[in-house]
Amino acid sequence: MAYGVVIVSHVEQIAEGVKNLISQVAADVPITTAGGTDDHQVGTSMEKIQKAFDDNSADEILAFYDLGSAKMNLEMAIEFTDKQIHLYDVALIEGSYTATALLEAGTKLDDIEVQLKPLKIK
């Protein structure tokens, strides 16, 4: 099973910057982003999230986000995809970096989730 990563941020440049960072440790993991609103403002877009899901070549996706309304849009977008999405309430940079590096190393999802627990946002 191939896994991919989706990064959702309220700011396009943050989403792309996180992708740039985590790509350094995971050349073989498909990473797509959804940053900002449809008109390039601060916020999130369910349509951009759906496109990030669709554009990601993996059938199973680990999704990371920056703030609460991004989570809400992620949860709505999950309803409209056939892909299996795992949504994580963890620190965006640390969580996505950890998960992506472990995916690249071939770590099982259960073991990745154990590593993500200390990064959970309460």
Could you walk me through the main structural features you see in this protein, from its secondary elements to its overall organization?
One of its GO terms (cellular component) is membrane. Homodimer. The dihydroxyacetone kinase complex is composed of a homodimer of DhaM, a homodimer of DhaK and the subunit DhaL. InterPro entries: DhaM, DhaM_N, PTS_EIIA_man-typ, PTS_EIIA_man-typ_sf. The protein has 122 residues and is α/β, with parallel strands linked by helices. The protein has one domain: 3-Layer(aba) Sandwich (Rossmann fold), CATH 3.40.50.510. Helix content is 44%, strand content 19%. It contains 5 helices and 4 strands, in the order E-H-E-H-E-H-E-H-H. The chain has a 4-stranded parallel sheet with strand order 2-1-3-4, with helices on both faces. The protein starts with a strand and ends in a 6-residue tail after the last helix.
